[in-house]
UniProtKB/TrEMBL annotation:
Name the UniProt record assigns to this protein: HNH nuclease domain-containing protein
Superkingdom field: Eukaryota
UniProt lineage: Eukaryota, Fungi, Dikarya, Ascomycota, Pezizomycotina
A UniProt-annotated Pfam family: HNH_2
Domain HNH nuclease: 81-159
Family matches, as InterPro entries: HNH_nuc
Length: 255
């Protein structure tokens, strides 16, 4: 908790104290779960909530040759859900109906990828440049299809600075909170291992999306046939941004 406050949520110039309101107990850095309740933060200097915007995203699927290679590479490396530990019993038949290769950094935010040179965090594609590195296996994780949308909407994440612990930001119906990211995807001797920096980026976005005020909206992703998708987007908070991402995603699939 203290690490999240100091590294992501708060902008402080002086030391600060966190107290559990009911017990008046001072909270110190610890790996123990935080007790539910209200907490008060005080400091001798200025204390501000970080207003850094969270990067909205869509659920992303492979739709081009490069993305097909990404999917195949992530499957070959992980071979199971690295979040839940669930094994693919159909692997001998090369069938993956219940598993998705998820991008850690979203495909539809390619402009941000290039603007901030996030490709520098990809080390297994030295000859590639620009946006192409976004489809590196180092930007991917294999997970249950049911977890993919939750991951893309920042409802859970992995903290590489806390032993790769999985943190759920929603009621943990999937029983993944507190699990450890499977080592198969993060072996440092494997040049295709998932990037710690990209995991760190995703964890930061998840904290910003879920731990400030009421949190960021969870976008609708289930559109039955006949749904006026554009009408739904018009009614959503950040609908304009999401509409632009939808257009970019569709253009990418035919590019």
């Amino acid at each position: 908790m203290i690490g999240i406050l100091t590294n992501i949520l708060l902008i402080v110039e002086q030391p600060f104290t966190v107290k559990h309101r009911m017990s008046d107990r001072i909270i110190t850095p610890s790996k123990d779960p935080v007790e539910l309740g209200d907490y008060d933060i005080s400091s001798t200097g200025p204390l501000h909530l970080n207003d850094e915007p969270c990067v909205a995203r869509l659920i992303t699927y492979s739709s081009s040759g490069q993305e097909d290679q990404f999917r195949s590479g992530v499957r070959a490396r992980d071979r199971k859900c690295v979040i839940s530990g669930r094994v693919n019993n159909l692997i001998q038949l090369n069938m993956w109906p219940a598993f998705h290769a998820a991008h850690v950094f979203p495909l539809e935010c390619g402009n941000l990828w290039c603007e901030f040179n996030y490709g520098r965090w990809v080390t297994n594609m030295d000859d590639a440049v620009g946006i192409s590195k976004i489809n590196s296996t180092q930007n991917g994780l294999l997970m249950d299809a049911s977890l993919h949308n939750l991951f893309d909407q920042y409802l859970f994440s992995i903290n590489p600075d806390d032993g790769y612990k999985i943190i759920s930001f929603f009621p943990d119906d999937m029983t993944i909170d507190g699990r450890i990211l499977d080592p198969v995807c993060r072996d440092p001797t494997d040049p295709n291992h998932v990037s710690d920096e990209l995991l760190r980026w995703h964890f930061r976005q998840s904290v910003l999306a879920n731990m400030r005020g009421a949190g960021e909206p969870v976008f609708e992703s289930d559109f039955p046939p006949g749904t006026d998708k554009m009408a739904v987007l018009r009614e959503e908070l950040y609908g304009k941004e999401r509409f632009e991402m939808e257009i970019e995603s569709r253009l990418r699939s035919v590019g």
